[in-house]
Design goal:
- By secondary structure, this protein is α+β, with helices and mostly antiparallel strands.
- The chain folds into three domains: 2-47, no CATH class; 60-117, no CATH class; 121-204, no CATH class.
- 25% of the residues lie in helices and 11% in strands.
- It contains six helices and seven strands.
- The chain has helices spanning 2-6, 25-33, 37-46, 121-129, 151-165, 195-200; strands at 50-51, 59-60, 71-75, 78-82, 87-90, 131-133, 147-149.
- β3 and β4 form a beta hairpin.
- The longest helix is centred in the C-terminal third of the chain and has 15 residues, at 151-165.
């Protein structure tokens, strides 16, 4: 319905996509609304069913996915390819032979990679979340020099975050990633250290469904 309502009126009079003589936009919309349930079932019965696993009575489809050594993030103007050595934008047309992509997986904006080393706000947040105090001091006397980065924990977080972003998974080695404060417990998980903010940022890349852990 939304698609038909947003099509330009001219397309119904002289366009290539919808032109039917004597048929305007309202006529098409009325017909669409008045389709019966039986008619819908008949239409759906004629559609091809696709699967990656070559199930019986389905047509095989190959989907474009991440590779073991490369991750791909889809934008309107291209696909960002991320490897351990490089980040680049490749044209959408260059992946045609590698498989189909879901339009719903595409991030609805254009991307431009700057060849400038940046220390972004998100990186600063993550580093701050893994700062440990060298000595015990009163809150009012805290200085940056009294903290040091917990390198092992910071590396573990980045690996877990990358694992959650990456879509190449071995089904026999799937992992559950759990964020918990190093000084907390399941009974007393602590808070205010950035866990929710870091995990919540995944929504800009993946479908995310928050569920109350309790």
């Amino acid at each position: 319905m939304r698609f038909l309502e947003n099509v330009e009126e001219d397309e119904f009079h002289q366009g290539d996509s919808f032109y039917v003589e004597g048929c305007d936009q309202l006529t098409v919309l009325d017909a669409w609304i008045n389709i019966t349930e039986t008619s819908w079932k008949n239409v759906l019965r004629t559609l091809d069913i696709f699967s990656e696993e070559e199930f019986s009575d389905t047509s095989t489809i190959s989907l474009f996915r991440d590779e073991p050594e490369a991750a791909y993030i889809q934008f309107l103007n291209g696909v960002v390819k991320v490897t351990k050595d490089d980040i680049s934008v490749i044209p959408l047309g260059s992946i045609t032979d590698s498989g189909a992509i879901w339009e719903s997986k595409q991030i609805k904006r254009e991307i431009h990679i700057e060849n400038v080393q940046r220390y972004g706000l998100f990186e600063k947040l993550c580093e701050r979340a893994f700062q440990k105090r060298k000595i015990e001091t009163k809150f009012t006397e805290i200085k940056d020099s009294e903290f040091e980065l917990a390198e092992d924990q910071y590396r573990a977080m980045r690996q877990a975050y990358g694992y959650l972003l990456h879509t190449h998974k071995q089904l026999d080695e799937l992992k559950a990633v759990i964020f918990i404060d190093s000084e907390g417990t399941y009974d007393n998980p602590e808070g205010g250290n950035g866990k929710s903010l870091i995990i919540g940022s995944l929504k800009y890349y993946k479908n995310l469904v928050p569920v109350d852990g309790k």
